[in-house]
Amino acid sequence: MPSISIVMPVYNEVPVPGDDSFLSRIQALLQLLRQGDELLLVDGGSTDQSWPVLQTLAEHPQVLAIQGNKGRAQQMNAGAEKARGDVLLFLHADTVLTKAAWQALLFKLDPSVWGRFNVCIDGKSAWLPVVSWFMNHRSRLTKIGTGDQALFVGRKLFDQVGGFPKQPLMEDVELCKRLKRVAPQKFVAVASPVFTSGRRWDVNGAWATIVLMWRFRFLYWRGVSADTLARLYADTRQKLPVTVAVFAKYPQAGRVKTRLIPMLGAEQCAMFARYLLLSTLDKLQGVNVALWTDGGTPEEWATLLKGRAIQCYVQPEGHLGVRMRAAVETHLNGSELVVLLGPDAVEFTASHLRELIDTARQQGLAFVPAHDGGYVALACNRVVPEIFSELIEWGTARVAEQTRVALRSKGLRAVWLSSQLDIDEPADLGRAIESGCVPVDWPVRYSSID
User: Fold this and answer.
1) For the chain, N or C: smaller number of CB within 10 Å?
2) Quick one: 427 and 289 in the same domain?
3) Interatomic CA distance for residues 361 and 358, integer angstroms
C-alpha cells in the first residue's frame, strides 16, 4: 500500500514543563503508523517547551522534527519538502486522528486522490455538533475542506499544484481550490471523523466564531486578499497559550512580610521575601512569566533578577483589584490565558499550575483558594470585572467568599480548586517548614544576589 507522511505544524503546544497532553496525543498517533509511514513535526519558532519536546519525540525512528518559519502554510510546506511518503496527511496539532479514521483512510488510499475527513468539534457549546454537521456537508458539496478536517493529498498531485500557497490565512481553502481545478473527480470525503478542539468557539463564543468565520470566507470569495484578512483577524493561535503574572514587592526591610517581624526581624523578613520570589520564579522556568513590581528601582530589580529573562511591569496605583485587572487586560492582548500568582504560595507546584490552566481553559475562570480566606492564584481567559471590584475587602480573610458572592450575584461560574497555604503569619511559616514546603535552610538559599 502507499506510504503516508503525516505533517503536523506545531506552535506553543507545551505551555508548561511536564504538560503531557500533547505528548500523549503524539504517542497515540505513533501507534497507528505502519512500516514506511512517518510523522513530521514542524515547529514554527515556539516560545514555550514545544521544541525540546519535539526533539525528544524525534528519537523515535518514524519521527522527524524540524524548525521552520511561523505560519501554517510555510510549516506544512517545509514538512512536505522533507516527507518521503506517497500520500501527505496534514494534521493540526489540536486535531485527533482516531484509529477508526485512520483505517477508513487506508481503505480508500490511493496516491492519485485528495480529500479530507469529516470532523467533530470537541467543546462545551451545544451548537458545536451543528457546526460540525454544516462543515462536513458544505465540504462534501463544494469539495473545499479546512485544516481542521485533516486534508490529505497524493505527493505528485500536491507538487503539481505547487503545495500550499504562501499566504497567512485561508491556505487550506486555496489548496482545495487548486486541487479541485486539476483533479475534481479524485476528491474523497472520509466519513469516519477526526476530532478537533473547540477552544476558539468556547473562548470567543460559538455564534461569534461562526459569524466571524463565515464573514471571512465571504470576503475571501469576494476577492479580498489573504494578507488583508490576516491583518483584520487576530487568530487566537497567534497568541501565547499562557502568561503567568507574578505580583511582588521589592524585598526591602520593613516593607515586606511585616507580620513576620516579631519572629524574624525586618532584615530577615526581607531575605525571606527574596527567597519566596526567586524560588517561585525558578519553579516557573519554561513558562512565559511577567513580573508586576511594587517598589524598587529598575536597577535594583535587574540586580535581583540577574540571569532571569523576565519582563517587568510596574503595578498601577489603587487597590489590589485594580492592579490585578491591569495585568489581565495587558496580557490577554497577547495570551489566550492569564494566571495571576503571588510569590508566597509555597505549596503551588508545576502540577498545580497545569491543573489550574486546564480547568480555566475548560471553564473560563478558576481559583486556588488560600487557607486564610483569600486565594493564592487565579486563571482566566477574559476580563471578569466582578472579581476585581472595589467592594471586595482586599487583604482580609473575606476576599474569597466575597468573590464567590460577587460571581453568584451576576450568574457567573468559577471553579475553586483545593485550598493551599500562603505565608502571612508566623504560624504559617512554621507549618510550611514542618510540611516541607519551605526548606529549613531557606535563609542561605538566594542569600546572595551576586
Assistant:
1) C
2) yes
3) 5
Closest of 190, 191, 208 to residue 200, by C-alpha: 208
* pLDDT tens track for 266-293: 999 999 999 999 999 988 877 889 999 9
Measured distance CA(36)–CA(417) in Å, rounded: 46
Establish if 76 belongs to a structural domain. Answer: yes
Inter-axis angle of helices 171-182 and 72-82, nearest 10:
50
Same domain, 68 and 27: yes
CB 108 within 8 A of CB 190: yes
| Distance of alpha carbon 359 from alpha carbon 337, whole angstroms | 11
For 297, the grid coordinates are 528601582
Q: Please tell me whether residue 117 adopts helix, strand or coil conformation.
A: strand
Domain membership flag for residue 266: yes
Same structural domain, 347 and 430: yes
Residues 433 and 303 in one domain: yes
The CATH number of the domain holding residue 381 is 3.90.550.10
CA-to-CA dists, residue 247 to 85, 283, 325, 386, angstroms: 51, 15, 12, 20
User: What does the alpha-carbon distance between residue 339 and residue 359 come to, in Å, rounded to a whole number?
Assistant: 12
3-state secondary structure 149-172: HCCEEEHHHHHHCCCCCCCCCCHH
Grid cell locating 105: 483512510
What percent of the chain lies above the pLDDT cut of 70? 90
Nearest to 25 by CA among 122, 129, 125, 130: 122
Residue 450 lies in a domain: no
